[in-house]
Write a structure and sequence with these properties.
Blueprint lengths: L5 E9 L6 H9 L6 E2 L12 E2 L13 H5 L3 H17 L5 H4 L2 E6 L5 H12 L9 H5 L3 H10 L5 E4 L5 H14 L5 E8 L4 H10 L28 E9 H6 L6 E10 L9 H14 L9 E3 L6 H15 L8 E2 L2 H4 L6 H15 L1 E2 L21 E2 L5 E8 L3 E8 L2
Parallel strand pairs: 4-5, 4-6, 9-10, 9-13
Antiparallel strand pairs: 1-7, 1-8, 2-3, 6-7, 8-14, 11-12, 13-14
């Protein structure tokens, strides 16, 4: 059977720069910072004082009071974004479709955010007696909550592949639709990481920014004077369906997911491998039936650490060679922080705006490009004439690489 074309017909976003796509695009294009002083807990004992926090966590309109009580914050965040995406796609899930409609959610840290209070009380000798602790905090709870809200009977699961989690969810969904197992999938990523335990654990790795006051100095991808990672909260979800299904119901198609590929370095838990990253990029292009010359923009993983940035540059240069310096490269973590399992989907949400209007999002705090990195980056944001194909990278701890190519129809 010929693989079926997969398109995006709806998207939803929750970010410190806005909780709808249009606001999010405008804030990114304007070089605004979602990174700010952490106010949800006392940071005086930490070297890190800045993060891109979701405060408050947005609430979906469609959940009843009882459903919200029966949902973790991560589930509520996921439903909020799925609700937006489904509304934009104008889906009503009639009975004949729910058997072939499913959900895959990617999250790097799953429900550690919500479990922090539980763990704190437990070790203080005040264990919870709530029968809801397990069902609310299961790894699959966000996916199941979305499925229950819309009555979906297809494949429903969660995946966790560190900061490639969201793209793993999307790539898996694309393959299920292409091969005819599902007709419609709700897929994306979510993570809430601005908690004391997670901050403490990341600080121990010595990769977090130590900037305490100025958001513009917190995370500086590709800059010679970069200071490390800034943590971020966020989520983004999408409606994926076959091109034929979308056309039949008259849906507006935002983009086609032309290429997907996943592989593993099998090298180290934290060190990246440029050879396998470049192979992932090459195979994604091959899967999309595109040449390197067809790519008009790149959304780099761009974490803001020297090792990851330089390795990604080597990977990109191995594929695009001398043309790389002419391809616009975006690095959103300068503005929204590293949202872990949500980072790929949040880049995809931004890329939909770039595909529609030619937005070239800035790295506003890039002052001195790292020596030897010849990249096309804007510090102010620009609007290009046209972009037809966009490459998006996620390269995660554990050596999990996932790349996508989205294209105009």
């Amino acid at each position: 059977m010929t693989p079926r074309r997969v398109v995006i017909t709806g998207g939803g976003i929750a970010s410190p720069l806005g909780n709808d796509l249009e606001t999010y695009w405008a804030q990114l294009l304007g070089g605004q910072y979602g990174i700010a002083p952490i106010t949800t807990f006392d940071t005086s004992a930490y070297a890190t004082r800045l993060a891109a926090c979701l405060n408050p966590i947005p609430r979906p309109a469609g959940l009843t009071e009882l459903e919200q009580k029966m949902s973790s914050n991560l589930s509520i965040l996921s439903v909020f974004c799925a609700e937006q995406a489904i509304a934009q796609a104008r889906l009503d899930f009639p009975a004949e479709e729910i058997q072939r409609s499913g959900v895959i959610v990617g999250s790097g840290f799953l429900n550690l955010y919500d479990l922090e209070d539980y763990n704190r009380n437990f070790f203080r000798g005040k264990p919870s007696r709530s029968p809801l602790t397990i069902p609310l905090n299961m790894g699959n709870a966000p996916a199941s909550r979305i499925a229950m809200k819309y009555g979906l009977k297809g494949i429903v699961k969660s995946v966790s592949t560190a900061c490639s989690s969201g793209f793993t969810a999307i790539a898996d969904s694309v393959l299920l639709i292409r091969e005819g197992y599902q007709e419609v999938m709700i897929a994306g990523g979510c993570d809430l990481v601005s908690s004391q335990t997670i901050l403490n654990a990341w600080e121990a790795m010595r990769v977090l920014t130590k900037e305490k006051e100025i958001p513009a100095l917190a995370c500086r991808p590709f800059d010679r004077d970069r200071r490390g990672i800034a943590l971020g909260d966020g989520a983004a979800f999408f409606v994926l369906e076959t091109y034929e299904h979308a056309a039949q119901r008259g849906a507006t198609i935002l983009a086609e997911i032309k290429g997907v590929f996943q592989n593993s370095d099998s090298l180290d838990l934290v060190k990246p491998d440029s050879q396998e990253e470049s192979r992932c990029i090459e195979q994604t292009l091959q899967n999309a039936n595109l040449d390197p010359a067809d790519i008009g923009m790149i959304f780099a993983h761009a974490t803001g650490t020297r090792l990851n940035d330089t390795t990604e540059y080597e990977s990109l240069h191995a594929v695009f060679k001398e043309r790389l310096k002419h391809i616009p490269v975006c690095g959103l973590k300068a503005m929204i922080g590293h949202t872990m399992g949500a980072s790929g989907p949040m880049a995809l949400a931004a890329a939909l705006g770039a595909l529609e209007s030619g937005y070239f999002y800035p790295i506003p705090n890039l002052v001195n490009l790292e020596e030897g990195l010849d990249l096309c980056i804007t510090t102010t944001g620009q609007q290009l004439i046209s972009v037809d194909n966009i490459l998006l990278n996620t390269f995660a701890f554990g050596g999990i690489n996932v790349c996508l190519v989205i294209s105009k129809i």
